[in-house]
Amino acid sequence: MKFTYSILLFFFITACGSSKKNSDSNVAQSTNPQIIRDTVYIEKENTVITENGVYQATNTVLTDLIHTKLEVDFNWPKARMNGRAYITAKPHWYASDSLILDAKGMDILAVKIGATDLMYTYDSLKLKIKLDKVYTRTMQYTVDIKYTSKPNERETGGSAAITSDKGLYFINNTGETDQMPQIWTQGETESNSVWFPTIDSPNSKTTQEIYITVDNKYKTLSNGKLLTSKVNSNGTRTDYWKQELPHAPYLFMMAIGEFKMIKDSYTRSNGQKMDVNYYVEPQWESNAKAIFGETPMMIDFFSKLLKVDYAWDKYSQIVVRDYVSGAMENTGAVIFGDYAYKTDRELLDNNDNSTIAHELFHHWFGDLVTAESWSNLTLNESFANYSQYLWDEHRYGKDEAMYNALDEMDGYFQSAENGGFHDLVWFSYESREQMFDGHSYNKGGRILHMLRNYLGDETFFEGIHKYLETNKFKAAEFHQLRLAFEEVSGQDLNWFFNQWYLASGHPELEVSYDFSNGTKIMVEQKQDLNEFPLFKLPVDIAIYDGAGKRTERIWITEASQEFTIATTGEVKNIVFDEQEMLLAKIQESKTADMYLHQYYNHKGYKLRAEGLIKGSKAKANGIGESLVLAALNDSFWDIRIIAIEKSANISDAAKLTANPKIKSLAISDPKSSVRSAALKYLAEELEKDEMIAFLDNIFVKEQSYNVLTEALKALAVVDNDLAMAKAGSMENEKSSKMLLGIGQLYAKNGTPEKIDFFKNAFRSGSLKGFDEIGMLNNYTVFLINNPEQFEKAVVDYQYLSENGGTYTKLFLSQFITGISNKLGNDIAKNEADILKMDVIKDTTEIQQLQSENAYLRKVIADFQAIK
């Protein structure tokens, strides 16, 4: 699963229960000792209270799922699903006459084995069935359960990563809007048991088949292969999907709608072709290949890198509306939110290949080998996170990979500082949803990179190959990953896993140098050692001296250490962590000249960027300015952006060289973000007439929406009236990003009549994903700058509360609170002014302020009444 860490809303799960025997209303209570023993244990949800607090144990395996067969059809108006589940299972070890299933918020209509009705109890969460006899671990049975799933009629919860646990979602099922009706599912963490009874635990695995009956106009998608598609006499069609390889229940999926399927393929190592298909709404059919088209290359790359072929029947990707997370790795049938929809022009600025790679890599790490508990979630998510680095490194080069890796590392730092530190393998969480954070994802990915650098590529990839082969189609815990690396490398790696997997935090290093008497490197670990471990860190150091360059490895093992390095002649530089691999916060004391040397002599992005930023401060003989000018021609785009930004601080004489180059970058740099940065710089440097003429050319020739947005901002710097007129001519662009850019301009500079732009934008259907939230933020700022429009805006916030995207609905209350607070402050100010005016008896002004306050109170009430 992929999600965004800025979502910080949390919800609590509640439920109510009932108990029935088949379709009767009588309570069926069993006194069988085996059932009572198992029930007591299961109802504790494997949460154990110890002297050290909560311990989240792995779910005890009482029953082995073997096969799940489902037959489903839908009551669209009522948002219900009629289901029949045939669950084939057996006791895991101990003989038993009971089966306990997760089944959330259902109507249970019948439970049978063959023709025999079975006794059961049901509390709306657990379905506890007394079997027809005692079964041993060598005996299979198939339970037949007839039920109705009612996802919209149960109390639901959610988290930052997965905003709802409804499990089964009906989108525009009553046809009240223009949006294409859809049905889709979201199972992680334990929500698929809303739409079929199962053992909803990551350490359960089962094969599956599903018969989906829908109106003939709809396409369906599920796991496995579509084996048959039968048109029925009543105008419906039944699609039969079957997956013969076992996977965890949270990976089951369905999606239904009038999607277009765009066919692609991948050729396996044995020469067989495999379907790779993309499901999109009809209007996006022509863009699907551009959005997803690198998928076959990714499958090939990862299969060869891991030396484990892609295991599943097919690889399909589908984009749905109102999705409750970023994307989800359902086996062979991945779901994306509508943020993935991008036109060819929008793809010039960014794509979602990192997310595509992330979900694909899960098909080895998560789907093939599954974390046995949510405490071990990093076994799924850290590998998926690291796949983004691996793909970037392969496809775009190490600079791109490291640029994005540093962004991921910053995401971990922010997540930890805002949400708290915890062990990577975390047995003491309060809610399993807490596991979906910057630790399991970002931190885990960076830890894998450190292990790769320590072991070397051959050993590292052979280790994960060993892990996959040993544990495929099983559940695993992190110790099995360690043992695989140990078996391949021959090393005891407990020191590495203990500090990175079973402890929290990260090193905070202060590094300094002393060249007065030989060459010494001083390193201090400054993290709180009462809370975080003293880390053992192998670090590569590059030494540049009179003999040239060499690399040595030092081992940091103490809170304060001094390393004496043999050097020859003048020491020009020492580069700490030459491999750019440490997950750490590092403060290093070096001269500007040494950083300047670092830029010119090191190949890695991180160290070059650092060299440019700090080396540009060198003053002697203008060498810092020369560095900035040189970096404008750097091979990597973000270095060029840094150089553009640093150009603002160089002398006028140096700008005579820099500015023509930056004008050239604004027109012809292959990276749109560089062109945007160049325009932002030039808006502050060029004279008004020159900048207007320059921008006229940009507006004619530029295709990137991000650059055009920056051009509007640049134009507003030199001539706001012209910028507003230009923005008005672009309001009909069908680009989410372009509309968002115009909204940013109007938020700051828009006059009252621009309220119509915002109203139309929210209803146009063009805003996708988080852009809708961005536009809502722009709208709120616009209203604060145009307070007379607040009353007209209430209807728009009400519209978004009913029709906005999932995240928009979640954030709406925050925007309404912000508006209410602002208007409340205005009321308080007016009240203070009234008190002052009452002293001088300014009756007319008092009446005007009282009238204004009455209006403001009404507006606040209208906003707060929004559902």
- What is the SS-derived class? alpha+beta
Number of strands: 31
The average pLDDT score comes to: 91
Lateral arrangement of strands in the main beta sheet = 7-6-10-4-3-13-16-15
* Proportion of residues in extended strands: 15-25%
Main beta sheet: 8 strands, mixed
**Percent of residues in helices:** 25-40%
Number of helices: 25
Unreliable residue runs:
5-44
Net shape: globular
**N-to-C span:** 30 Å
Radius of gyration from CA coordinates: 30 Å
Please provide a brief summary of the model.
With 867 residues, the protein is α+β, with helices and mostly antiparallel strands. Helices cover 40% and strands 23% of the residues. The chain has an 8-stranded mixed beta sheet with strand order 7-6-10-4-3-13-16-15, with no helix packed on it. The protein has a 5-stranded mixed beta sheet with strand order 18-19-20-22-21.
Descriptive notes:
The strands form 8 sheets. Strands 7-6-10-4-3-13-16-15 form an 8-stranded mixed sheet, with no helix packed on it. Strands 18-19-20-22-21 form a 5-stranded mixed sheet. Strand 15 and strand 16 (236-247) form a beta hairpin. It has 25 helices and 31 strands. The radius of gyration is 30 Å and the shape is globular. It has 867 residues and is of the alpha+beta class. Helix 4 (353-361) packs across helix 5 (378-395) and helix 5 packs antiparallel against helix 6.
